[in-house]
Design brief:
The chain has 205 residues and is an alpha+beta fold. It has helices spanning 21-32, 160-165, 168-172, 178-204, and strands spanning 4-5, 16-17, 135-137, 144-146, 150-153, 156-159. It folds into two domains: 35-121; 135-204, no CATH class. The strands form two sheets. A four-stranded antiparallel sheet has the order 3-4-5-6.
Length: 205
């Protein structure tokens, strides 16, 4: 097996890797920065921060390129992790919060720019064709957005006319509490859609 070593850094550290020269250089840089790196099967990582290439760990902070970890905070490029917070560029994670640019995750909360995720709350992924300058309302039980011709509430997207025509039973079937939500906010949402549609028409003229 080939072993790669970095050049000695100004701090006197030498990184080593059996994978690639790039990883050896990265490990040396991690040591210079006072980071932990190449952790495996760790627990109670409350004293760790700015880790690199961790695996099957828990309670980490400010880490990157992690795998199968849990209870992480402000990490990046993670995979198959759970109960994470304020992370980015993650994949196939679970029960995360306030993360961004994630893919294939589930049970997340207030994340954005996600793809193929499920059972999320407080996040909105526009499900129709590409739309510009959506008008949105955040801070409610479900986020609301409209393109002027369509309205999306949570994951339910329909045309303005369809929303206008739905009876109470149809709305109630969408989700628990949906009918009370719709009765309270329908005037505001429909007015917002009409305003957005008016802006589009004015621009077209």
């Amino acid at each position: 097996m080939m072993r790669y070593e970095s050049a000695k850094t100004s701090s006197g550290n030498i990184g080593m890797s059996y994978t690639s020269q790039a990883e050896a250089d990265a490990n040396a840089a991690a040591m210079d920065a006072g980071n932990n790196f190449n952790c495996y099967n760790c627990s109670d990582c409350s004293g760790c921060s700015r880790c690199y290439n961790c695996y099957n760990c828990s309670g980490c902070s400010h880490c990157s390129n992690c795998y199968n970890c849990s209870n992480c905070y402000k990490c990046s490029n993670c995979s198959d992790c759970s109960n994470c917070s304020n992370c980015s560029n993650c994949s196939c994670c679970f029960s995360c919060s306030n993360c961004s640019r994630c893919s294939g995750c589930s049970h997340c909360y207030k994340c954005y720019n996600c793809s193929r995720c499920s059972d999320c709350s407080g996040a909105l992924i526009w499900r129709g064709s590409q739309a510009e300058k959506l008008l949105t309302i955040n801070g409610l039980k479900w986020p609301v957005a409209t393109s002027g011709t369509h309205i999306q509430i949570g994951c339910q997207q329909h045309t303005v006319e369809e929303w206008e025509s739905f009876d109470d039973a149809r709305i109630a079937d969408m989700a628990g509490g949906a009918l009370d939500f719709w009765r309270e906010f329908k005037p505001t949402i429909m007015a917002m859609a009409a305003h957005r549609r008016g802006l589009k028409m004015a621009k077209a003229e």
